[in-house]
Design a protein that fits this description.
The chain contains 14 helices and 32 strands. It is of the alpha+beta class. It is globular.
């Protein structure tokens, strides 16, 4: 039988009207007030779409790099073509020199414990700039020739200002030549070296001078790289040549363009087979590691690997003479997934390529197709880090290796394709990714993960008395709260929005539309909020404010039940929003005849204040009530969720444990 319901707020209509009248002209402090966002314009519209005047800079790189394994150092030179698509004339540009954090005098070393996850490991490295110049320009139509010229520059920690020889007008391009070197130190923060199986694995990232982003929101984004906050980068193309000892195998962002120079005929044949195979194909096996026949002859002891990539915001690579290498086709052969790992890890890593295949194919089916031709997973010193088309993973068990692989490849969608500012808004990177990780985990294991958008991890922070808002900048988060504030809470909030507030049938198309609108662009939080609201047809100001901007908590309570018979028998359930977060209410009712019923109330019941009375008409009487009977909410005080208080609710099954990757 359908349950009939009448709702009775504790405030009568006349009392509420009087209250509103008495505060006429006063600021609206309701949690339901419209969220104040930047004014929409022709660049970023009120509906959340990029406007007709949206613009974005572009940076294209041609890089040549040489790895010196004796000195454990790298030397590189690059020609950067910078396209000014902004309406502004630029007289200087800013480059990022992230390697400068790896020094005892860097700001990052002073802020974060060098021994910690984002520490510098006691490194005394940093970038040595060898040249910054404008190349010679040949004469062209309407333009005189100009000779090469050195450019003045100033280094400020991990960023460098370069003065241009002439102002760069809108729609114009500027070429810059830069050469540099740096040593590999003991650091293992997102990159580093590992001695293993008689060789050294080099994972190389944040390794070249990278253009800072110039955008319509803040102009130049020049936050220091301190080690904990991640990145904000321009999109473009890469043509990268990497010279290494001939016995090394190289994995990198992009597509290998000279396989005939660096692979044997057998390896090239196996790669072609892997592209159309659903089973893992070994490209270089364990028994071939150390066999000279598994590497082409090299006249001078080195080989140069050349990779190209387009529509990417970064480039990373890895090299080792001990790599086992295997591969498999993904999404019907559109992508080649590969793994690179040393022999002593083969028992665990022989399944890693299939983990990558599972992750990429499921994300492609549920949210948006994987857009790139390759996806490489490298086992080295770094525990978990993502770059375009390549990830670094290191975990000790099949379950945790799957988890970190799934997480790092999930970053392809956020932020590799949807390029948000991770340093200012880490939740738009980690939170979005952990949200999609949650559903991949459920598909694989049939139960929710323990550490992907989990209630338990969020509650540990929320009840600590030291919670930080999700909107906190990455480097301003205490290290212990990076995971719960940037990963768990926003992922959990998105799950609640999808599953409880608006439903998957409305949320999923809106989330996909956000990806479509902002692929290869730079969205802000306002663009995300507006896109979701535009797609689901709701003003969600109360939700964004409560979950992302504040440290308010969710504490729903049922205070009592009363019976009334003035208009026939009815049960009155007295509810209270004891915390600061309003949410819909889900009630499990035990009736006087032993039957059970469910009652769901919308979030709007809290419009009138923090108390509400739900009336359940007879003839059956409500004997007991349980709030949130399935424990879907992160309620900080579940002891007030039942009336009578002694009523027990079932506990959800304990999910398997997962591992967090970065």
């Amino acid at each position: 039988m359908r349950l009939l319901l009448r709702l009775l707020p504790l405030f009568s209509a006349s009392a509420l009207s009087a209250q509103q009248t008495s505060t006429a002209g006063a600021p609206d402090t309701s949690v339901f007030r419209r969220l104040e966002l930047p004014a929409p314009n022709s660049i970023r519209t009120g509906s959340g779409t990029p406007g007709p005047d949206y613009w974005q800079q572009r940076a294209d790189y041609v890089i040549r790099a040489t790895l010196d394994t004796s000195a454990r150092s790298l030397r590189g030179e690059a020609r950067i073509t910078y396209t000014n698509n902004s309406p502004d004339t630029l007289r200087y540009i800013w480059l990022q020199l992230d390697q400068n954090v790896f020094h005892s005098q860097s700001r990052g070393t002073k802020i974060f414990d060098p021994r910690a996850r984002f520490g510098t490991g006691g490194a005394e490295g940093g970038v040595r700039i060898l040249k910054i110049a404008q190349p010679a320009v040949a004469a062209a139509r309407g333009r005189a020739a100009s000779p090469a010229s050195q450019l003045s520059h100033v280094v400020n920690g991990t960023v460098m200002k370069v003065d241009l020889a002439a102002p760069l007008a809108p729609r114009a391009k500027q070429e810059i030549d830069v050469s540099w070197s740096f040593p590999f130190g003991p650091n293992r923060n997102r990159m580093g070296i590992e001695e293993i199986d008689g060789g050294v694995t080099y994972e190389v990232a944040q390794w070249y001078p990278r253009l800072a982003v110039y955008d319509d929101i803040r102009g130049w984004n020049t936050e220091q790289y301190l080690g904990q906050g991640e990145f904000y980068l321009e999109y473009g193309s890469f043509d990268v040549s990497i010279t290494v000892p001939a016995d090394m195998i190289v994995a990198a962002t992009g597509v290998l363009r000279n396989p005939a120079d660096v692979l044997t005929a057998t390896q090239r044949s196996r790669l072609a087979q892997a592209g159309t195979s659903s089973s893992t194909v070994v490209i270089r096996g364990r028994d071939e590691v150390g066999d000279p026949a598994s590497r082409p002859a090299a006249e001078y002891g080195n080989l140069t690997w050349r990779f190209t990539a387009d529509s990417v915001r970064d480039f990373a690579w890895a090299a080792s003479k001990t790599f086992i290498w295997d591969a498999v086709g993904v999404n019907g052969g559109k992508t080649l997934a590969m793994s690179f790992y040393p022999p002593s890890t083969a028992a665990l890593w022989k399944e890693a390529t299939q983990y990558g295949k599972f992750a990429i194919e499921n994300y492609s089916a549920q949210w948006a197709p994987y857009p790139y031709p390759t996806a490489s997973n490298v086992r080295g010193s770094e525990g978990g880090m993502e770059y375009p088309m390549i990830v670094f993973c290191n975990r000790p068990t099949p379950e945790t290796l799957y988890s970190v692989t799934d997480h790092e490849f999930g970053h392809t969608w956020f932020p590799m394709v949807v390029g948000s500012n991770e340093r200012r808004y880490p939740w738009m990177d980690e939170g979005f990714n952990e949200f999609i990780n949650y559903y991949n985990w459920v598909k694989r294991f049939g139960l929710p993960p323990a550490h992907r958008g989990s209630i338990r991890d969020y509650l540990a922070m929320a009840t600590s008395g030291e919670e930080r808002p999700v909107m906190t900048f990455a480097d301003q988060l205490p290290p212990m709260f990076v995971s719960p504030a940037a990963y768990d809470k926003p992922a959990l909030a998105l799950r609640l929005l999808r599953e409880v507030v608006v439903g998957p049938e409305r949320f999923d198309p809106a989330f996909k539309e956000y990806f479509r609108r902002w692929a290869y662009k730079h969205p802000t939080p306002a663009d995300f909020f507006r896109t979701i609201e535009d797609g689901v047809g709701e003003d969600l100001s109360w939700f964004w404010r409560s979950w992302l901007y504040t440290t308010a908590q969710l504490d729903q309570a049922v205070d009592s039940i009363a019976l009334a018979d003035s208009v026939g028998v009815e049960s009155r359930i007295f509810l209270r929003n004891a915390g600061g977060i309003p949410m819909p209410v889900d009630l499990g009712l035990l009736m006087d005849d032993g039957s059970t019923q469910r009652l769901t109330l919308p979030v709007e019941i809290w419009y009138g204040g923090d108390r509400y009375t739900a009336i359940v008409p007879g003839p059956k009487k409500v004997n007991a009530v349980t709030l949130d009977p399935e424990s879907r909410y992160p309620d900080v005080r579940r002891e007030n969720n039942r009336w009578p208080a002694a009523l027990q609710s079932e506990s959800p099954a304990t999910p398997p444990r997962s591992a967090t990757g970065r």
